[in-house]
Amino acid sequence: MSGARARRPYYREDLALIHHQGFGFHADACAPGILELLAPLQKRQGLVVEIGCGSGLLTRHLVEAGHRVLATDASEAMLDLARRHAPGAEDLRQLRLPDDPVPAADAIVSVGHVLNYLDDESELDRALVALGGRSAPVGSSPSTCATSHGAAPAGRRRPSSGGATDGSWRPNSPRRLRTGSSG
Question: What is the mean pLDDT of residues 119-133?
Answer without folding.
Answer: 90
